[in-house]
């Protein structure tokens, strides 16, 4: 069967409603192009900036080389071209210390001093040079400030291998390559004031004093940088360019004096410096004599005295270390990928120090003599970074301590790397000159991504608690992983304690400071017993593993502990099931008093501020609550009195909490029936009933069971900050049914207590346990296998934020077990453990530091090679991945093969293809052997191919494609006998999919085949095939349709048609061809409800140019006919989406507010660089209205500061065109407008970029949108949009609140 040509489509139904696409960035790419140390906030802060494709991240490195995220700027709406830092580091060298509260930071005042440096950068497509700095506002929010300087317009960005912005070592000038043969030079305004932190950023500040353009550079600029001036002429400016002209590489430089009134610059040329085919990739300026280093794939060369005719060239030989194990072999040494100059001062100024890093992660330390850099170079290999390395690396540290390198890995996790010492090493001393590097932390990176899988969690059994997790194949050999993309907070493990049997049965934990012993006591409560361990407040080395179990502590260790606290500096109060005990420093017993006979304590709480404890006792089937006041604590005794009479309650009290403000102390008790009792603590009468509150049923629960509301844990969050105002508090209740019940209370000035609001937050299906967090407004919770953080900006329910918490180790291979108990370490000024979180999970205790910023916390599972394909075997609950693996067959040859790996937890086994064969596609295929069989037969179909060998193209017997059927091995087994069936083809098999129960569809060459699998004979019966214009690369089926993404054409839709006369034979008919999505790479079939009980289907197709195209699928109920796909919408994301899946990633505590305007929202996609997108399908009216809001945002400098003056554009037929102005905006027409103007549909108009809406909503959306409308209405220039807004201002303002509500509902659908 040959390709069918489309016939003329019948007239479309013009009244048919359209749909739109909303896109939103859920997680930015982890791919970083460069890391630049830049003190843009303050001279006293060690900041560095990560430059991504279209964002800038600001980090601070603190004591212990801890990395703190400060702020992110992502409103560039374009690609960052190049960047460099302007301004010198001052003589102060940071020792990465903790800064005190009185540190003189930059404030938000416009006249305050700037940091000593600025970031200079360009945006591709603009003719401006931007300067960025930051100041820290009073609310600790870092505010970026940007100024720009116009540059000469250039046609296309320069193709500079290195950084296209060069800065003079003294920051007197900077040069920007603005074309292949042009350089723009700027002179920094008052560079000394800037570098010493004396420059103020105010309305009159201009970073550049003057500028000039160097034209007619004789060749294409490959590398460019300023050289250090000779010692005898420090006023000299020397700009060196390495150029390529007619295949010859030569140095070209321009030199002039910085003190000249007229900056005259003449171009000088050097001789040819490299042989043909040898291209330099790194230019390293050296201190002294205008020397520099060039690196190539073949070696390193040092150039001296470039300014005079006797230029000297010296080759430098580095004894290279072997690449890491399983690193892809090469015939040449690994390329030198980056270099950094560490900070040196004082006695180290006589020499020049360089870290040179190869792409395989090896670090070499080079020391050059400034007077003779080509002689006696000291070279030491000081370690391996264990990652792929490109240009993203930055140095920190100080001269008498270790150097710190922050490295962002390329397609692998980066790291923070420290050397133990960094004096000038001697090659004659101990190995590596006494320098040894080690990794202290890893930096996440989950790129490159070619596939995406959504896997249901264990909660999938109940739809209300369902949540999907995302898995991607990531990394390159030997750092390939199957990575779980998790959104939440990272609890980085600093130490792990194992071997204590008590950890495996712990239910509660507390940490008590013991100042006199400079120790912490860790109290662990288990069923029927209590354990007490001691640890130094600042442990070192193996101290973590030498926890001392204390047997004589003056406490009750024979029963479970319900509450324990340090009520004075040296007195511990413990409440157990059978007694209350007091101990001095958990040593000598001061008092132990048993509960009355027949009484058993079931809950307790202690308020240390007033030395008060409350205890719930169970006696004769009833509960009573007692209040105990601790009096004087002597050297050998302690006094305790009971306040008032015991309070008896109905039902079984199972949890207690006590909270005191400066005006009021109250107790909250929860019982097993879901009732909360609030008592006031009276100094005379003890507990006085104040409030009784019934916990309502969770609307998310499927079963209306009273037992699910049993309150197992209670916390009271909030603090009194002003005596003249009421106190807001939030009571958190951990319920047995798997939710947190939050009750908002307010304590009035008249000591009244009122309930404000309440709400359920669903976490899971099992009991929720709670514990206090770092502040009075934070807490931690566990529920089943989930671990969560609760945080509030204020004691209001609307301010509650719940985040998943994931424990991670350095390589992020940690498999997290359910958390049994957790507790915060109290703050002690001199302790290194202060405010760490102790987490007990399995049989281990982990000391963790919890991040304060939510983000992606990847979880990695190691695989062989470079993974590219991933399949979730749902019926077996395991993964199957395919990776390409390169190895060295001999000293002169390499080989490549693909490895199919089956994995489940810690188990994995693999099956390998033949050499030279690549896996193009894998699918799970399951069927029943007989109609009445209870179990399904599970297979994995694997499509492989190899490149056609010379001489075999004309042979019809050559085999270049195969299709394997593999039986997944049992867990613990091997895959050596898993092949059940092999089918061979002349051309590579590039895609496949199942069709129904026993049908298979696969693409081989330009053909697509449909076959039925005969279960009895285990053979394929080929039914039909179809010839396409180019090979298929992805196939999906939705009977009777088969959708194929082809290599060079668009998505093709075929329909399987059976003849009524011959039911056993079928035919594939071409029913739609998507000409609107050329060069497609993937597609996903989407079904959405549309109209009255109807379903509309379309293919969401992604292309190599970064477009997403919606192609409507023909109605299968209509007779098949050849047509062209109706294009519903187009969207350009500037990144190609590799895979889109349906995934419910929304956590259960954030239920989505259903709205009829959002037709579908559970779509997630990933790009090659790891960017995660969320997609939603909107109805036509909402799309048009939000599109208008987006256009207003694009014209506002607060939301789009870099592009607000440029009209938005769209791509059509390979050309860029301005988006036409249609007024009135669609969605705001009156009845007369609809009559006067025919309805038009432009696919590019049906895309809403949700990132603009997110920026609007991040501020006060209503106020800002009103301000935007006012600004538009007052513009004096003739502009059709401004004119229309001015004429319809009141009507537009009346819609603002509705528009903000619609925008919020549309973008808040995912994490």
TrEMBL record:
<feature type="domain" description="RSE1/DDB1/CPSF1 second beta-propeller">
    <location>
        <begin position="509"/>
        <end position="748"/>
    </location>
</feature>
<dbReference type="Pfam" id="PF10433">
    <property type="entry name" value="Beta-prop_RSE1_1st"/>
</dbReference>
<dbReference type="InterPro" id="IPR058543">
    <property type="entry name" value="Beta-prop_RSE1/DDB1/CPSF1_2nd"/>
</dbReference>
<dbReference type="InterPro" id="IPR015943">
    <property type="entry name" value="WD40/YVTN_repeat-like_dom_sf"/>
</dbReference>
<feature type="region of interest" description="Disordered">
    <location>
        <begin position="1226"/>
        <end position="1245"/>
    </location>
</feature>
<protein>
    <submittedName>
        <fullName>Uncharacterized protein</fullName>
    </submittedName>
</protein>
<dbReference type="InterPro" id="IPR050358">
    <property type="entry name" value="RSE1/DDB1/CFT1"/>
</dbReference>
<feature type="domain" description="RSE1/DDB1/CPSF1 first beta-propeller">
    <location>
        <begin position="32"/>
        <end position="416"/>
    </location>
</feature>
<dbReference type="InterPro" id="IPR018846">
    <property type="entry name" value="Beta-prop_RSE1/DDB1/CPSF1_1st"/>
</dbReference>
<dbReference type="Pfam" id="PF23726">
    <property type="entry name" value="Beta-prop_RSE1_2nd"/>
</dbReference>
């Amino acid at each position: 069967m040959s390709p069918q040509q489309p016939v003329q489509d019948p007239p479309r139904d013009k009244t048919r409603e359209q749909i739109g696409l909303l896109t939103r960035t859920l997680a930015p790419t982890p791919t970083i192009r460069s890391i630049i140390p830049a003190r843009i906030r303050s001279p006293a802060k060690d900041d560095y900036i990560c430059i991504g494709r279209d964002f800038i991240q600001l980090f601070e490195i603190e004591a212990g080389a801890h990395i703190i995220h400060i702020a992110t700027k992502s409103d560039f709406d374009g690609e960052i071209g190049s960047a460099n830092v302007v301004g010198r580091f001052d003589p102060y060298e940071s020792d990465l210390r903790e800064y005190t509260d009185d540190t003189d930071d930059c404030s938000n005042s416009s006249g305050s001093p700037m940091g000593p440096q600025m970031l200079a950068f360009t945006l591709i497509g603009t003719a401006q040079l931007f300067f960025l700095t930051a100041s820290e506002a009073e609310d600790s929010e870092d505010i970026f400030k940007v100024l720009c300087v116009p540059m000469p317009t250039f046609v296309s960005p320069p193709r500079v291998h290195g950084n296209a912005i060069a800065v003079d070592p003294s920051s007197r000038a900077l040069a920007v390559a603005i074309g292949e043969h042009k350089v723009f030079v700027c002179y920094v305004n008052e560079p000394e004031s800037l570098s010493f932190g004396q420059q103020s950023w105010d309305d009159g500040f201009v970073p550049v004093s003057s500028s000039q353009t160097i034209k007619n550079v004789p060749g294409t600029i490959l590398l460019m940088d300023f050289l250090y001036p000779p010692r005898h002429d420090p006023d000299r400016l020397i700009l060196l360019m390495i150029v390529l002209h007619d295949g010859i590489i030569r140095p070209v430089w321009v030199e002039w004096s910085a003190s000249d009134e007229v900056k005259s610059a003449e171009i000088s040329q050097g001789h040819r410096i490299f042989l043909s085919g040898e291209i330099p990739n790194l230019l390293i300026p050296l201190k002294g004599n205008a020397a520099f280093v060039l690196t190539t794939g073949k070696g390193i060369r040092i150039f001296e005295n470039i300014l005079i005719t006797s230029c000297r060239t010296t080759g430098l030989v580095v004894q290279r270390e072997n690449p890491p194990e399983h690193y892809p072999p090469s015939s040449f040494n690994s390329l030198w990928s980056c270099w950094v100059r560490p900070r040196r001062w004082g006695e180290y100024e006589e020499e020049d120090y360089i870290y040179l890093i190869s792409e395989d992660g090896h670090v070499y330390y080079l020391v050059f003599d400034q007077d003779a850099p080509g002689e006696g170079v000291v070279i030491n290999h000081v370690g391996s970074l264990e990652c792929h390395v490109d240009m993203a690396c930055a140095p920190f540290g100080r001269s008498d301590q270790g150097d710190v390198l922050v490295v962002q890995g390329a397609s692998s996790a980066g790291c923070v790397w420290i050397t133990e010492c960094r004096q000038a090493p001697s090659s004659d001393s101990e190995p590596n000159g006494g320098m040894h590097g080690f990794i202290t932390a890893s930096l996440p990176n989950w790129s490159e991504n070619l596939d995406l899988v959504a896997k249901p969690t264990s909660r999938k059994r109940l739809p209300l608690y369902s949540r999907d997790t995302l898995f991607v194949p990531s990394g390159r050999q030997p750092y390939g992983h199957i990575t779980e993309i998790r959104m939440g907070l990272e609890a980085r493990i600093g130490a792990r304690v194992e071997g204590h049997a008590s950890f495996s049965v712990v239910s509660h934990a507390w940490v008590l400071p013991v100042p006199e012993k400079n120790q912490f006591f860790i109290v662990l409560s288990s069923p029927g017993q209590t354990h007490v361990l001691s640890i130094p407040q600042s442990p070192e080395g193996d101290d973590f593993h030498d926890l001392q179990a204390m047997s004589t502590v003056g406490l009750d260790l024979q029963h479970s502990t319900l509450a324990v606290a340090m009520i004075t500096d040296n007195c511990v109060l413990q409440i157990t099931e059978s007694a209350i005990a007091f101990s001095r420093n958990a040593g000598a017993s001061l008092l132990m008093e048993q509960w009355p006979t027949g009484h058993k304590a079931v809950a307790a709480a202690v308020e240390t501020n007033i030395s008060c404890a409350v205890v719930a006792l169970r006696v004769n089937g009833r509960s009573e609550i007692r209040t105990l006041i601790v009096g004087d604590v002597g050297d050998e005794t302690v006094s305790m009195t009971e306040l008032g009479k015991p309070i008896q309650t109905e039902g079984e009290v199972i949890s207690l909490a006590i909270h005191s403000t400066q005006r009021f102390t109250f107790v909250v008790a929860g019982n097993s029936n879901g009732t909360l009792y609030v008592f006031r603590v009276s100094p005379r009468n003890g507990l006085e009933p104040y409030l009784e509150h019934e916990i309502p049923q969770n609307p998310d629960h499927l079963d209306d069971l009273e037992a699910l509301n049993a309150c197992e844990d209670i916390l009271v969050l909030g603090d009194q900050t002003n005596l003249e105002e009421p106190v807001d508090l939030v009571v958190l209740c951990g319920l047995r049914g798997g939710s947190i019940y939050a009750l908002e209370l307010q304590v009035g000035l008249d000591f009244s207590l009122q309930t404000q609001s309440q709400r359920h937050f669903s976490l899971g299906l099992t009991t929720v346990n709670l514990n206090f967090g770092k502040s009075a407004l934070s807490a931690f919770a566990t529920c089943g296998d989930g671990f969560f953080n609760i945080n509030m900006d204020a004691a209001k329910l609307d301010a509650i934020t719940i985040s998943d918490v994931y424990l991670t180790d350095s390589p992020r291979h940690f498999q997290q077990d359910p958390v049994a108990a957790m507790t915060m370490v109290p703050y002690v000024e001199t302790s290194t453990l202060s405010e760490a979180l102790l987490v007990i999970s399995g049989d281990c205790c982990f000391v963790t530091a919890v991040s304060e910023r939510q983000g992606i916390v990847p979880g990695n599972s190691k695989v062989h090679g470079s993974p590219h394909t991933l399949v979730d075997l749902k019926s077996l609950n395991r993964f199957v991945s395919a990776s390409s693996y390169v190895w060295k067959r001999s000293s002169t040859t390499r080989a490549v093969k693909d490895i199919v790996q089956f994995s489940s937890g810690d188990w994995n086994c693999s099956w390998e293809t033949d050499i030279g064969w690549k896996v193009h596609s894998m699918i799970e295929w399951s069927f029943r052997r007989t109609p009445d069989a209870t179990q399904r037969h599970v297979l994995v179909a694997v499509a492989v191919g190899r490149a056609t060998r010379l001489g075999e193209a004309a042979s019809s017997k050559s085999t270049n494609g195969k299709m394997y059927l593999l039986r997944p091995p049992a867990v613990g087994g091997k895959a050596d006998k898993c092949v059940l069936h092999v089918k061979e083809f002349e051309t590579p098999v590039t895609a496949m999919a199942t069709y129904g129960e026993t049908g298979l569809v696969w693409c081989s060459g330009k053909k697509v085949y449909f076959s039925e699998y005969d279960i009895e004979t285990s053979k394929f019966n080929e039914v039909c095939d179809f010839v396409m214009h180019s090979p298929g690369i992805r196939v999906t089926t939705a009977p009777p349709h088969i959708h194929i993404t082809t290599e060079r054409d668009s998505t093709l839709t075929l329909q399987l048609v059976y003849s009524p006369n011959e039911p056993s034979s079928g035919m594939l008919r071409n029913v739609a061809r998507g000409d609107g999505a050329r060069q497609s790479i993937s597609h996903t079939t989407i079904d959405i409800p549309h109209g009255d009980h109807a379903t509309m289907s379309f293919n969401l197709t992604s292309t190599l140019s970064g477009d997403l195209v919606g192609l409507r699928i023909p109605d299968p109920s209509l007779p098949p006919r050849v047509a062209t796909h109706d294009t519903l919408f187009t969207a350009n994301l500037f990144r190609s989406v590799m895979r889109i899946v349906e995934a419910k990633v929304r956590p259960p505590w954030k239920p989505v507010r259903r709205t009829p305007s959002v037709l579908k929202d559970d779509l997630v996609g990933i790009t090659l660089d790891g960017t995660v997108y969320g997609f939603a399908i909107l109805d036509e009216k909402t799309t048009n209205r939000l599109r208008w809001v987006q256009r207003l945002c694009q014209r506002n400098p607060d939301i789009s500061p870099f592009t607000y003056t440029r009209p938005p554009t769209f791509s059509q037929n390979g050309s860029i065109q301005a988006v036409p102005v249609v007024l009135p905006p669609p969605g705001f027409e009156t009845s007369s407008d609809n009559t006067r103007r025919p309805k038009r549909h432009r696919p590019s108009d049906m895309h809403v970029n949700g990132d603009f809406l997110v920026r609007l909503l991040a501020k006060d959306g209503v106020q800002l949108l009103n301000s935007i409308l006012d600004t538009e209405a007052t513009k004096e220039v003739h502009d059709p949009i401004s004119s229309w807004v001015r004429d319809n201002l009141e009507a537009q303002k009346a819609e603002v609140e509705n528009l903000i509500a619609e925008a919020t509902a549309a973008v808040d659908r995912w994490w």
